[in-house]
Amino acid sequence: MKNVIVISTSLRIGSNSHMLAEKFAEGAKASGNVVEMISLRGKEINFCIGCLSCQHTGACVFKDDVPAIMEKVLKADVVCWATPIYYYEMSGQMKTLIDRMNAMYPKDYRFRDIYLLTTAAEADEDAPRRAEIGLTGWIDCYGKSSLKGHLFCGGVTDARDIEGNNKLLEAYKMGTNV
């Protein structure tokens, strides 16, 4: 049994990437894992100001929702990120959270397996390439972890466009294999 954290970074109600995240979480739960979904919708996440105080104190100067999210990520065995692709890149919310997680760098962590779920209006398979590169930049800072899987669903523009798409079943199956 693994502790799985799924972070849904879209702020849109009916988000296609959030629906992929839910299916991944369902699959992980069905395999007997402990799963928690974290949606960034409604969360207060300030921008990193680059003061590097966190590197000396282990905590960020901002008292928002990020420290609680970081503690869950540090204790997870598996972290799954879900993001819509905006202009061929991860959502701003995801990038802001990654930047703010700088306080985790000097700390011990359990996570080893990282997954990425992406959706975009653009159907080209290369659409999420920069988002994956950005996430692997974060992963590279945690040498005991690696990207275990990336699932992309293109051609979904409006809220809930992904309903009935086979990528939902693929996300469920990916979740069962954590």
Q: What's the arrangement of strands in the largest beta sheet? A: 2-1-3-4-5
By CATH, the architecture is named: 3-Layer(aba) Sandwich
Radius of gyration: 15 Å
Describe the global form: globular
- End-to-end Cα distance: 9 Å
Structural class: alpha/beta
Summarize model confidence as the mean pLDDT: 96
Specify the CATH homologous superfamily: Flavodoxin domain
SS element count, helices: 6
Task: State the share of residues found in helices, binned by percent.
Answer: 25-40%
- SSE pattern, N- to C-terminal: EHEHHEHEHEH
CATH class: Alpha Beta
Oligomer: single chain
Main sheet specs: 5 strands, parallel
Q: How many DSSP E strands?
A: 5
Number of domains: 1
What would the CATH topology be?
Rossmann fold
Proportion of residues in extended strands: 15-25%
Q: How would you describe this structure in keywords?
A:
178 residues, alpha/beta, Rossmann fold, 5-stranded parallel beta sheet, 5 strands, globular
Write structural notes for this entry.
By secondary structure, this protein is α/β, with parallel strands linked by helices. The protein has a single domain (3-176), classed as Rossmann fold (3-Layer(aba) Sandwich), CATH 3.40.50. The protein is 34% helix and 20% strand. The protein is built from 6 helices and 5 strands. The chain has a 5-stranded parallel β-sheet, sandwiched between helices. The chain is globular and about 50 Å long.
